[in-house]
Amino acid sequence: MSDEHGTIESHPLQGETYPPSPEFRDRANVNDPSVYLRAAEDPEAYWASEAEKLQWTKPFEEILDWSNPPFAKWFQDGELNVSANCLDRHVAAGLGDRVAIHFEGEPGDTRTITYAELTSEVKRAANMLTSLGVSAGDRVAIYMPMIPEAVIAMLAVARLGAAHSVVFGGFSAESLRARIDDARAELVITADGGYRKGRVSALKPTVDDALALHGGGSSVERVLVVKRTGNEIEMQAGRDLWWHDEIVTYDDQHQAQGFPAENPLFILYTSGTTGKPKGILHTSAGYLTQVSTTHRNVFDLKPDTDVYWCTADIGWITGHSYVVYGPLANGATQVIYEGTPETPDWGRWWSIIQKYGVTIFYTAPTAIRACMKVGRQVPEQYDLSSIRVLGSVGEPINPEAWRWYREVIGAGSAPIVDTWWQTETGAIMISALPGLTSLKPGSAQVPQPGIDVNVVDDAGNRVDRGQGGLLTIRRPWPSMVRTIWGDDQRFIDTYWAKFGDQYFAGDGARVDDDGDIWLLGRVDDVMNVSGHRLSTAEIESALVEHHAVAEAAVVGADDETTGQAVVAFVILKSQQTILTPEAAEQELKKHVAAQIGAIARPRQVFVVTELPKTRSGKIMRRLLKDAAEGKDIGDTTTLADTSVMQTISDRMRAEL
Ligand code: 6R9
């Protein structure tokens, strides 16, 4: 693999493996290795048999239509209701008394919601949304904290055949507005606020600000507000309604209608290599099939005894697929926690695991590393013996964090499934199956049954074992992104243009001698900060929007806790008097957070007089990245001005 894809070394720990214990293997949902062969021989038949586990109002006959690649259609002549599959179906099967959600608010308030109760609430909400004018084909924006109403809102929208666009509560008014406009949402569901780090984090005022931007006039007609924190907010007459005032006027009778398998289920925006976020479109039946299958297989879910907890926020794909749709389609009992792991102290997560007897725990490496830093003496104060499966997602988990996770949280015995997937893939694509796979710390390991993952060279040919290359997916899979909302051409250009017949994921990877896959990070201008994707272009354009900034370059520099951190290099306008170089760092950090959201706040902002550019004028971000990581600056001979990098590099070394 070439330099631009990063250096690939053989991992020294490649030999370290952990086979499943015989007891685990014997009881595992998947313990017959022939599943891989069966699925590889006829992937469509495999996925059809998985899809048949759902409840269809009209059974499908056609499995896959790939006559117009890259636009896939799965089970397209079938019809179902996604929400009824997550709710009514379980109640009808006599499981209404099973707990669906153990909710734990950050201040310590709790709610226990059974499947029967959740179904009633969603039906009521569906009636409310209907009378507010929501129907099949519409889009509803959801901007909420992690409270049960967020899940209820998503399922109510889905129940009506409309599509939701959940926007992470940490995003700014600008970001929210851009997403509302792109999806042309007519309704926004929000809350007065949520609790974060012991404080009220207001949400409704951000919605007000978003809707007031660009002179007001947006597609939004109504704003529905859940009361969570009781902070003072303004309610605009004729536009804003309190959820609790409205919902009591509707009853909990609602017959779910079946919708075509390819009916849009949701749009979720994610960063790409250019500044404009991409509206990733997912549809109904294929998505639900793959999220439920992978949730059952990868986590070895036993719905009648397990207590599952995924710490992801519903604002991200992990929250969509493995808090809402996968677990609920499988009738799981799960924990939903509103707040942050350090509130009121770093024992919070472990106390929740102890309290609810959590058996399956799914989180991100960045969180594990943060907990490692605090020290094992914290989790050791709690009884975590209920844990039997651990999951990881969002970025490669370094072997040191893997071992700590297994030893300290998993009692030295819980299998860890390292799950590779993306907003675009909708569901887990690469992961161990805990009853079958001998685990290898640091490697995501094997494609899921029925999934055709490859590591290829620049020409699209599979690389040999021991080699690195680019990660691609050859055959369409049920939960695959259907398009970029409103921009089919960008969908083609972004994912398919490079190889023609293979989906290009944007990640580098290596296959080891056993055929296991090791992910090596993004190969494009996308960063991974705390498991969240941010684009360098998006942050750069936010920076140059500041009146004092002439030019900006942003890189993701390796960071011990967050995986990568945003580091910005800016050139100030020569004539400007708004900012002194000394004041620039704080001001520009604040500016980026206000423009995009706190998640994009740079770790450092360096004011420089020049940026390293090639003779054709391209910024050499790779050199800046090396400088930001304190590394030696390699070959600079392609730079227009070779002294620039020396100056920057000397500065960085002085600061580090
Ligand atoms: C689910 C999610 C996707 C990008 C992806 C890759 C990175 C996710 C990973 C992983 C190594 C894993 N990524 N899981 N890298 N090992 N287990 O995170 O979706 O936010 O769209 O990010 O995250 O780079 O391309 P999304």
TrEMBL record:
Its cofactor is Mg(2+). Mg(2+) binds at residues 544, 546, 549. It comes from Leucobacter ruminantium. ATP binds at residues 394-396, 418-423, 507, 522, 533. Pfam families: ACAS_N, AMP-binding, AMP-binding_C. Keywords: Acetylation, ATP-binding, Ligase, Magnesium, Metal-binding, Nucleotide-binding. CoA binds at residues 196-199, 318, 530. The gene is acs. The modification N6-acetyllysine is found at residue 618. One of its GO terms (biological process) is acetyl-CoA biosynthetic process from acetate. It comes from the Bacteria. This is Acetyl-coenzyme A synthetase. Residues 90-477 form the AMP-dependent synthetase/ligase domain. The lineage of its organism: Bacteria, Bacillati, Actinomycetota, Actinomycetes, Micrococcales. Its EC number is 6.2.1.1. It is an enzyme of class 6 (ligase). Signal peptide: none annotated. Residues 538-618 form the AMP-binding enzyme C-terminal domain. Residues 1-27 are annotated as: Disordered. Residues 35-86 form the Acetyl-coenzyme A synthetase N-terminal domain. Belongs to the ATP-dependent AMP-binding enzyme family.
